[in-house]
Design goal:
Shape: globular
Helix content: 25-40%
Number of strands: 8
Strand order of the largest sheet: 1-8-7-6-5-4-3-2
Radius of gyration: 16 Å
Largest sheet: 8 strands, parallel
Length: about 220
């Protein structure tokens, strides 16, 4: 299993975003996490297709796009054109989740499915064979800098067991409240893709990234 760090640019300094992205890449982060918020599914508003289109060629990193957007099926093609490699949508935000997943894959992207802390992970069980990645939100979506919800570890364990029961080598991603102090806990639970925002971008970005990558590399 490959262990991958996905720094979230929600915590980046946009005055120097290009150079910060390169620093994360140079220090081993394979993905870049791009959070899109619409002010409807979550209270906050972030950024969208124009920003992704302008930055996705600045590094060779995989563009891991997380749509916290109501009825994201409306935007699938636009995010493909903007440079998304992985497009993750919320189970709670889709009227027809299977049609949304199919459209993502038909557009040539990997399909991710995310669930909020209030959603039982078993609600995603029958969809695991149709997706490439399951994202477990370990904070309430919409704001950076929140504390990790401990009950998320049990959900991650359950998700990994469900995937194994179906014979799936599914990527399981976690987002929210992850730092160097608790990243091993989520890896032990079954995560292999880790989103980190403030723990990467606050302070020494290069050293923060390198430390995450070393922990994950040695774990694997």
């Amino acid at each position: 299993m490959r262990y991958i760090l996905a720094p979230s640019i929600l915590s980046a300094d946009f005055k120097v975003l290009g150079s910060q992205m390169k620093l994360t890449e140079e220090n081993g982060a394979e993905y870049l996490h791009f959070d899109v918020m619409d002010g409807m599914f979550v209270p906050s508003i972030s950024f969208g297709m124009p920003v992704l289109k302008s930055i996705h060629t600045a590094t060779g990193q995989v563009m891991d796009v997380h749509l916290m957007v109501q009825e994201p099926i409306r935007y699938v093609e636009a995010f493909k054109e903007a440079g998304a490699d992985i497009l993750t949508v919320h189970l709670e935000a889709c009227e027809d989740i299977r049609a949304t997943i199919k459209k993502i894959r038909d557009c040539g992207m990997k399909a991710g499915l995310s669930i909020c802390p209030e959603t039982d992970v078993e609600e995603a069980e029958e969809l695991l064979g149709e997706i490439d990645m399951l994202l477990i939100m370990s904070v309430h979506p919409g704001f950076g800098g929140q504390k990790f919800i401990p009950q998320s570890l049990e959900k991650i364990c359950t998700a990994r067991k469900m995937a194994k029961a179906q014979g799936l080598e599914l990527d399981i991603e976690v987002d929210g409240g992850i730092g160097h102090f608790n990243v091993r806990d989520v890896l032990d639970a079954g995560v292999n893709v880790v989103v980190a925002g403030s723990a990467v971008f606050e302070g020494d970005l290069a050293e923060n990234t390198k430390k995450f990558v070393e922990i994950m590399k040695n774990y694997g």
